[in-house]
Design goal:
Layout lengths: L4 E7 L4 H10 L6 E8 L5 H8 L3 E4 L5 H14 L4 E4 L8 H7 L2 E6 L11 H8 L3 E8 L9 E8 L6 H23 L2
Parallel strand pairs: 1-2, 1-4, 2-3, 4-5
Antiparallel strand pairs: 5-6, 6-7
C-alpha cells in the first residue's frame, strides 16, 4: 500500500469526475486519498456523492473570489491537503490563491488544450471541423486553462457527432485520463 496524499476535489456540478476519482482512490495502489470536497454550488450533485462515500464536504457559496478563496484555504489547511483536483469547478482561482496554497493544483478540461480554452468547448470543437477532440489534465496557473499539460487523451470526431454525443464520449475519456495523470504525478 502506498502512502497516500491528502487530496481535496473542487466541484460545481454533477460530480462524475469526482465519482471516478473516489473509486480510483479506493485502490491500495492509487496515490491519493480524497479527504475533502469543496463546492461553490449548493445544488451540486457531487456533494451527495462525497457524502455517500463519507468524505467531508464544505459548501462555500460564492460571495466574492477573495471570500471563497480565504474560506477554502482555511479548510485546506485544517485538513492537511497537499493536492487539489479541480473537477468541473466553474470558477477561476486567483494567482494569489495558487501561490498561498503552495502545493499542486491540477484541472481537467474537455478539449485538447491549448485549443478551446474556457466554456462551450464541444460546440466550438464541432464548429471548427477539427478531426479530433479529447481532454487535457494540466497544472493550474493564474491564466485560464494555460498551465503546463500533464496528460492528454484524444478521440476521433465522427461525421454525425453532436454536442451531446461528443460530451458523453469525452466525459468517459476524462474518467480514465484523470486517474492516469494522477498516477503519473507520483511515479
Amino acid at each position: 500500500m502506498v502512502n497516500k496524499v491528502s487530496t481535496c476535489v473542487f466541484i460545481s456540478g454533477n460530480g462524475s469526475n469526482l465519482n471516478a476519482l473516489i473509486k480510483n482512490s479506493r485502490s491500495d495502489n492509487f496515490p491519493i486519498k480524497i479527504v475533502l470536497v469543496i463546492s461553490n454550488n449548493p445544488k451540486s450533485k457531487g456533494l451527495k456523492i462525497a457524502k455517500k462515500y463519507k468524505i467531508n464536504t464544505k459548501l462555500i457559496e460564492y460571495k466574492s473570489n477573495k471570500n471563497f478563496e480565504n474560506l477554502a484555504l482555511l479548510e485546506l489547511k485544517k485538513n492537511n491537503i497537499r493536492l487539489i483536483c479541480l473537477a468541473g469547478f466553474m470558477k477561476v482561482l486567483s494567482g494569489s490563491f495558487i501561490k498561498k496554497f503552495s502545493y499542486t493544483i491540477i484541472n481537467i478540461h474537455p478539449s485538447l488544450l491549448p485549443k478551446f480554452k474556457g466554456l462551450n468547448t464541444h460546440k466550438r470543437v464541432l464548429k471548427s471541423k477539427d478531426k479530433y477532440s479529447g481532454c487535457t489534465i494540466h497544472y493550474v496557473s493564474p491564466i485560464l486553462d494555460a498551465g503546463q499539460i500533464i496528460l492528454q487523451k484524444k478521440i476521433l470526431i465522427k461525421k454525425n457527432e453532436t454536442e451531446k454525443t461528443l460530451k458523453k464520449k469525452i466525459l468517459l475519456l476524462e474518467h480514465k485520463a484523470y486517474a492516469e495523470a494522477i498516477i503519473s504525478l507520483f511515479k
